[in-house]
Amino acid sequence: MKKRVLSGIRATGKLHLGNYLGAVKGMLELQDSPEYETLYMVADVHTITTPYNVDELRKYRKEVVIDYLSCGLDPEKSILFLQADVNEHLELAFLFSSVATIARMQHLPTYKDKVKQYPKDNTMALLNYPVLMAADILIYKADLVPVGIDQEPHLEVAREIARKMNEKYKTDFPEPKRFETKGQYVPSLKGEGKMSKSVEGSYVNLTDSQDEVLKKIRSMPTSSKAGGEMSPDVKSLFDLAKLFLSNISDFEKKFKDGSLQFSQMKDELAAKISEELKPLQEKRKEIEKDQAHVDKVIKEGTEKARAIASETVLEVKQKMGLG
User: Fold this and answer.
1) pTM of full prediction above 0.85
2) What proportion of the chain, given as a percentage, has pLDDT over 90?
3) Mean pLDDT across the stretch 75-97?
4) Phi and psi dihedrals of 32, rounded to 5?
5) Distance between CA atoms of 217 and 106, rounded to whole angstroms?
6) Fewer CB within 10 Å of terminal CB in the chain, N or C?
7) CATH code, 3-184+291-319
8) Which residue spans of the chain are classified as CATH 3.40.50.620?
9) CATH 1.10.240.10 spans which residues of the chain?
10) Which CATH architecture has domain 210-286?
């Protein structure tokens, strides 16, 4: 039997370079393998775990699907759907919450970071984010999850919940593993952390024009002179460049001997990024012209996802004594 794969990206905006390299490229690799059955969602319910704009959420739910299609995800090969349209995710998350402790959720570094970022919005939804993510994955009994390395703590929670459910209720959930991609961690343009839609100025959108990409890359903070030990800012620039430039070793040598011109390196990097984004942007323009097709993809994907998800929820409820 084929192994199942589940992944999703929050609907907080159009996809950016970090989403593409850290998740979508892995999605594409798995989609095109005959060994896997792939399900890719728009994580719109996860979006409401932190402060958000209602009108923007309505817009971006569909925009992310368009981005998926423009990147090459194929509804003939993968099930593409909106998380909120498959109610079973929420139902299973509540059932899973009966084996997940508050102390464990509070201990997660990702939770602590979000509380610091949104001190006035420390909600139960935020605390339960990893439990919902576990439900997203395990409702399809997925073996692999193509996500960035920062999501590993959440995957460990999913594995723990799978073990507890299997031990206590004799379910048969797999313990999902992360599928690593080349760009599993894409650094922020601000020189600290990773590219994130929640940090303005940290990312390159997949829809950015050549001029916009150039302006953003040129604005990356660096030292005034090359040489010596790399500052965190310079290291971020090199980490990003390693994902695109084949001649990165030449720039590293120039940095060490003090002859590197950061402007030259940035311009080459911006050109390579724009070169990679161009075919995606051209395909996106074509997809945007046929909104009926996008709606059809979402409708059909939701029906396929619910067919699988409903079976899992029924099985869990029966084993927990609720059916």
Assistant:
1) yes
2) 84
3) 98
4) -85, 5
5) 36
6) N
7) 3.40.50.620
8) 3-184+291-319
9) 210-286
10) Orthogonal Bundle (1.10)
| Cβ atoms of 277 and 57 closer than 8 Å | no
- For the record, the structure tokens of 151 come out as 């999501």
Q: What is the 3-state secondary structure (H, E, C) of the chain?
A: CCEEEEEEEECCCCCEHHHHHHHHHHHHHHHCCCCEEEEEEEEHHHHCCCCCCHHHHHHHHHHHHHHHHHHCCCCCCEEEEEHHHCCHHHHHHHHHCCCCCHHHHHHCHHHHHHHHHCCCCCCHHHHCHHHHHHHHHHCCCCCEECCCHHHHHHHHHHHHHHHHHHHHHCCCCCCCEECCCCCCCCECCCCCCECCCCCCCCCCECCCCHHHHHHHHHCCCCCCCCCCCCCHHHHHHHHHHCCCCCCHHHHHHHHHHCCCCHHHHHHHHHHHHHHHHHHHHHHHHHHHCCHHHHHHHHHHHHHHHHHHHHHHHHHHHHHCCCC
Write down the residue that tokens 């060490």 correspond to: 256
Q: pLDDT tens, 216-245?
A: 999 999 977 888 888 889 999 999 999 999
**Cβ pair 166, 131 in contact under 8 A:** no
Residue owning tokens 């508050």: 102
